[in-house]
Fold this protein.
Amino acid sequence: MKIQGLILASCCLMAAACTSGDRFIAITGYAQGGTYSVKVDLEGADGRIRMRPEKIKEGIDSVLEAVNNSVSGYNKGSILSRFNAGERVLPDNIFKDLYEISHRYYDETGGSFDVSSAPLFDVWGFGFTADSLPSPEKIASILASVGMDRLSDTLTVDSEGFTSSEMILLPEAAAGNADNGSAASGKSLPRLNFNAIAQGYSCDIVAEYLHSVGADRMLVDVGGEIYCEGLNPSGRPWGIGLDRPVDGNNIPGQDLQGIFRAGPEPCGVVTSGNYRKFYVKDGKKYAHTIDPLTGYPVTHSLLSATVIAKNAAEADALATYCMVIGLEKSMEFIQSRPDLEACLVYEKDGVLETWTSPGLVLDPM
């Protein structure tokens, strides 16, 4: 669900379904440390086929490669990696767009969604390094330099590019205010990690590309994050399986909690959970969801949160937010947002329980 590393390779292209009224194809490949899958009706609303399937795949791969080169923390040559290393870099449109979207969700969630918390994920072993079990003193020192409120609202770009300090430091910090984490304070500056939103964002821009060639019926799946629109080849809303959030369920679709339908309205569908990325030390489980406000992995009963939103980037960010704040607050949040649907799976007395918003019907397995 979150970026594992961005790599691209040709895989396969095959016909998925053909009927007299449509021409769906399936395109698959490798991306972002896993696979992507796209099912799309190439005829579009007016019945015209605008491009050969091979060209569609080339376009999709090009989009995903652009994301890799921009915001992958595992691609050491990406803009993000060079930025985090303190190099002077010029952000591309993908970087700027994702940064601005992330800042908006940081504000909306009161800091519970925070892409500037990369050092926290690193020190717990869930980021770009392999550390684990940091001391309370280490956590406190990292928290002193985390928070998108310490980042400028817009990227500062000049004809020669921009430096990390130009992007990160607020004017007060740039003037030497130690409380804001300037270089004079001795505190490290925030580094960025877009793992909690980049795959959802990737789905959205692949969908934008498909729109540009005339498609209006599609399902885009990048590493399990989904954007869907229109009806499937059978003329029904898209069926999406929800994995059972139990430890060891590492193969998507192998063990399902249930199936629900999404579409025909455009929407993003993303699940965030703590049952695949974790480790156990001294008998205690440490999951990959880190609360950026406390600096520690969450310990509540919520095991997975599936959010359906207007696009996959929003679903991705808000599913992460739900996993940070836990079951009760997530239920309150979803009920306060009529534009969202959600399914929350949690543990109660050793048994898996499911809560769904009124507009989402989950067919149990």
Summary: The chain is about 30% helix and 25% strand.
